[in-house]
Design a protein that fits this description.
Layout (H helix, E strand, L loop, with lengths): L10 E5 L5 H8 L3 E5 L3 H10 L4 E3 L12 E7 L7 H11 E14 L18 H10 L3 E7 L1 H4 L1 H27 L1 H14 L2 H12 L5 H7 E9 L2
Parallel strand pairs: 1-2, 1-4, 2-3, 4-5
Antiparallel strand pairs: 5-7, 6-7
Helix pairs in contact: 6-7, 6-8
């Protein structure tokens, strides 16, 4: 992603800047950085990790950064904002020759949601995104598909949840053997708190392996993109 940024020091708007780690690295490279982050907790982390950055504690829609910026940067944050509003606002903030850099997940055209089971990945429809880019007359000057490189991380995540699920099953078995009444009360509370759909998704997350790298790659496209005006 850093290779998609200008070589010379510039003004960067880090939209959805997380805990400020990316901003800290950008500042170390000589860039001026402003961060937009709606979470009060993450905003405080940004101020600690990147004290030289200006932090806007607001959603991107409500934030009032003062341009022009050479780069509007979305590092795994583009999927969390309304796509059309986000692009349009970036265009009002960019300097002449500025660029929008996106590293994020998109739903592929083959994606088909399941009514019960959760699906890995997320983000905006890649087709809707490309239609928007065309409508806004933007140029995609760089595009790198790193879906296959990212996908294995899904297996690592699923493995962690399966460990938690295994521990939960062992605890449940012990309660069934030694505290059956308490177990029945616990299951009754769980059914009251979670709908059947949510319980099915929790079981999928903890005890199954359907959320895997192959499924992620079949339903998602992870791209690094550079957009600019012609």
């Amino acid at each position: 992603m850093f290779e998609r940024l200008p070589q010379n020091p510039c003004r960067i708007l880090d939209i959805g800047g997380g805990a400020g780690e990316t901003a800290r690295k950008l500042i170390a490279l000589g860039h001026q950085v402003e961060i937009v982050i709606p979470s009060a907790f993450l905003a405080s982390r940004c101020r600690e990790n990147a004290p030289q950055a200006v932090v806007h504690e607001a959603t991107f829609q409500d934030a009032q950064p003062v341009g022009p910026f050479d780069v509007c940067l979305f590092s795994e944050s583009f999927q969390y904002i309304p796509m059309g509003q986000g692009i349009e606002k970036c265009l009002t903030l960019l300097a002449p020759g500025g660029r929008i850099v996106i590293a994020d997940c998109f739903r592929s055209e083959s994606f088909a949601p399941d009514k019960v089971q959760a699906t890995t990945g997320g983000g905006h429809s890649i087709k809707a995104f490309r239609d928007l880019v065309e409508k806004q007359l933007l140029v995609v000057s760089q595009e790198v598909d790193i879906t296959q490189e990212v996908a294995p991380s899904i297996d690592l995540e699923q493995g962690l949840f399966n460990v938690i699920g295994y521990a939960g099953k062992r605890i449940d078995a012990e309660f069934a053997l030694h505290r059956p009444r308490m177990r029945r009360v616990g299951h009754w509370i769980l059914r009251r708190l979670l709908s059947e759909r949510k319980r099915a998704r929790l079981d999928q997350r903890l005890n199954q392996k359907t959320r895997n790298a192959a499924f992620f790659a079949a339903n998602n496209t992870y791209l690094m993109l550079v957009l600019s005006r012609p």
